[in-house]
Amino acid sequence: MSEETTGITPFYDVDRTYEDNYRFGPFGAFAQTLGGDAKTGVSDDQVKRALESAPSDDNDAAAANATEPAESFFGVPVDLPFGIPAGPLLNERYTTGAFRMGFDLAVYKTVRSRAWGCNPFPNVLAVHPASADGILTPGSAECDEGVLADHEFETPISISNSFGVPSQDPDVWQPDMQRAMERAGRGQLLVPSFQGSRVDGMTPEQYVADHAATARLVLETGAKVMEMNTSCPNEGHNRLLCHAPDQVSTICEAVKNTIGDVPLIVKLAYLPSDDDLEYMVRVTAGRGLVQGFATINTISAKLVDAKGAQALPGAGRDRSGVCGAAIKPSGLDMVRRLAGLRERLGLDFGIVGVGGVTEPADYFEYRAAGADAVMSATGAMWNPDLAQRIKQAR
Ligand SMILES: Cc1cc2nc3c(=O)[nH]c(=O)nc-3n(C[C@H](O)[C@H](O)[C@H](O)COP(=O)(O)O)c2cc1C
User: Fold this and answer.
1) Is the CB of 250 under 6 A from ligand 1?
2) Which of 84, 205, 371, 377 has the fewest CB atoms within 10 Å around its CB?
3) Which helix (H) or strand (E) holds 271?
4) Does the keyword Oxidoreductase apply (predicted)?
5) pLDDT tens per residue, range 15-31
6) Whose alpha carbon is nearest atom 15 of ligand 1?
7) Is the CB of 119 within 6 Å of ligand 1?
8) Are 161 and 123 spatial neighbours (Cβ–Cβ below 8 Å)?
9) How many Cβ atoms sit within 10 Å of the Cβ of residue 200?
């Protein structure tokens, strides 16, 4: 069991379905900070009561200081530019839990223009790259031949996630997202993530329009900054939207025409080629369509069990995205290369460093590499006090 080997109940419980996590979560320390139970989760009423009876320590401390938060995120003052990226924060209860645990940036899990189902359970496995240091190199033979995946969660934590970007209907997520924003404390920010949905029979123009329509729905919630995911497999097997920079540019133009001055962050996967990365930057940030990049998403690898058989059940699930400690060098590499391009091209886009942040030192390493903000998904799931520890260390 996940908590038996690591001693921690992650706030997204990998032993439950996505639907159960959506209904009952968060779990672990996030549940406790909201007046719920680590094992059984938390209800909306408990969250309401917890917020009425005791504002978070962090907010108290910030209010007592009454000074402006020290840093900013795309022009919005934040205490520490550190948080949780798109994915494990499924709804307002999760984002409120994250804020109360001191994560000053909380990205609301990627939403769509329509309800969208989740891949079958299980959605999260532990992964164990073969190298002595546990690092997985993108495009390596191991990614194609198979990485061991099982239920032995251990530290430093590396996992795979296979959800298929599920979404509630906008009638559900819009009011929930609005509540999530209202529950950000002083020096904290809720960042919505969205993406387009490709359905059978859709023309390229309709696909572009779907992105713009989703951005409009997000804008209606009052978002101050928003993130567009271009790094999930929606162009066919192992092909990502961010592998088609001209298409990304066209989509960004339509989105930007919809959202106006609201800063737009594009979420990128690891792009190994310097030329491809430069082209992407030129046709998006270089055209003023994009104000920042968040990178990286997961690294695609074939997952196998101890007998070498497909680890995740079902067709089309032989490969899955790997995240956590195994991908930190790749995340740092993308951040360094983006920072280099920013300087060389004289552009001023922001960089959100993501990938393998599991310890406070990782936050500082990403900042030194050029990241303006840093986020942790896998690391935070198993280290709910990570933001507090970074604040102590700074
Ligand atoms: C449970 C889970 C769900 C995720 N879902 C999304 C998602 O909906 N949209 C997205 O852009 N990234 C998603 N991601 C990817 C993360 O945002 C992040 O890019 C990736 O996990 C690498 O960071 P990490 O090493 O800190 O986990 C998800 C990650 C996890 C662990």
Assistant:
1) no
2) 205
3) none
4) yes
5) 999 999 999 999 999 99
6) 297
7) no
8) yes
9) 4
Measured CA to CA, the distance from residue 353 to residue 366 in angstroms comes to: 6
> For the structural domain made of 2-393, what CATH number should be given?
3.20.20.70
240 alpha carbon to ligand 1 midpoint, in Å? 15
pLDDT tens digits, 362-380: 999 999 999 999 999 999 9
Tell me the one-letter amino acid at 285.
A
Q: What are the angstrom distances between the C-alpha of 198 and each of 6, 214, 246, 259, 316?
A: 38, 13, 17, 21, 17
First to last CA, the chain: 34
If phi > 0 it is left, if psi is from -120 to 50 it is alpha, else beta; for residue 35 that is: left
Q: Which atom of ligand 1 is nearest to the CA of 354?
A: 23
**Dist. CA 183–CA 167, nearest whole Å:** 21
Residue 53: pLDDT band with limits 50, 70, 90: confident
Say yes or no: CB of residue 322 within 6 Å of ligand 1. no
CA 377 to centroid of ligand 1, rounded, Å: 6
Check if the beta carbon of residue 84 is closer than 8 Å to that of residue 105. yes
* Distance (Å) from CA 321 to ligand 1 centroid: 9
| Ligand 1: centre distance to CA 330 (Å) | 15
Distance of CA 376 from the midpoint of ligand 1 (Å):
9
- Could you tell me if the CB of 110 is within 6 A of ligand 1? yes
Q: Which residue is associated with the tokens 């990485």?
A: 147
CA atoms of 321 and 87, how far apart (whole Å): 12
Instruction: Please spell the DSSP secondary structure of 293-351, one letter per residue.
Output: EEE--PEEEEEE-TTSSBSS-STT-SEEEEEEGGGHHHHHHHHHHHHHHHHHHT---EE
State whether the beta carbon of 355 lies less than 6 angstroms from ligand 1.
Answer: yes
What's the chain's length in residues?
394
**Any idea which residue has 């058989």 for tokens?**
309
**What are 117's two structure tokens?**
């189902």
- Name the burial class of residue 308, with classes exposed (0-12), middle (13-18) and buried (19+) by CB atoms within 10 angstroms of its CB: exposed
Q: Where are the domains of the chain?
A: 2-393
